[in-house]
Amino acid sequence: MKEVQVDVSRCVGCKSCEIACAVEHSESKELFGALFEDVLPRKRVFVQAAGECSVPVNCRHCEEAFCVRVCPTGAMYRDEASGTVQHNSHRCIGCGFCELACPFGAIARNQGSKVVVKCDCCPDRETPACVSACPTQALLYMTPEETQRRKLRSLAEQMCLPGKQKSDAGCRMPEVP
Questions:
Q1: Which of 20, 41, 153, 154 could form a disulfide with 129 if both were Cys (CB 3.0 to 4.6 A apart)?
Q2: All structural domains of the chain with their residue ranges
Q3: Phi, psi for residue 163 in degrees, rounded to 5
């Protein structure tokens, strides 16, 4: 299953992901049209300041999802086909238990309807809107295996000493497919 991954070193806090998310979840699916909708669309990714950095926060679709456990109506559930944690707004009573249970702060209450909203990984798209909109590629959509390979590659590159070539002694770059 692919997941939205965050590379905090690349995030510049531009909030393009927030705008793209809100537009994708609007009725019109376009920025100008979304601004004039009766009920303004809600973003499901939140860029938060963390010291000198900005961090996009979205649902991690946890394996042990506390939000699913505490939901009294079953509105929060795991979609077996995609493996993602989804939300049925028609079953939601707006109690906010899931919002309190989320360790990442990735669930927000829609003030207009009182039900919660969260990342759904844009099921009608090949790549979530937030990922497609990120100009610095701070958001990536990949499998955990792809993420691990990327981390190993980055670590291997950091191990190379400045000024050394990949073939020089002391700089051993493992080939990571």
A1: 20
A2: 59-118
A3: 90, -15
The tens digit of pLDDT for each residue in 61-106 reads 999 999 999 999 999 999 999 999 999 999 999 999 999 999 999 9
Helical ranges in 36-143 per DSSP H: 66-70, 97-101, 129-133
Coil, strand, or helix at residue 140? strand
| Model pLDDT for residues 108-133, shown as the tens digit of each residue | 988 777 899 999 999 999 999 999 99
Query: Under the phi-then-psi rule, with left for phi > 0, alpha for psi from -120 to 50, and beta for the rest, what region is 129?
Result: alpha
Residue type at position 2 = K
Report the C-alpha gap between 172 and 65 in whole angstroms.
40
Count the neighbouring beta carbons within 10 Å of the beta carbon of residue 169. 7
Give the Cα separation of 8 and 22 in Å (integer).
21
Q: Contact, 157 vs 171, CB < 8 A?
A: no
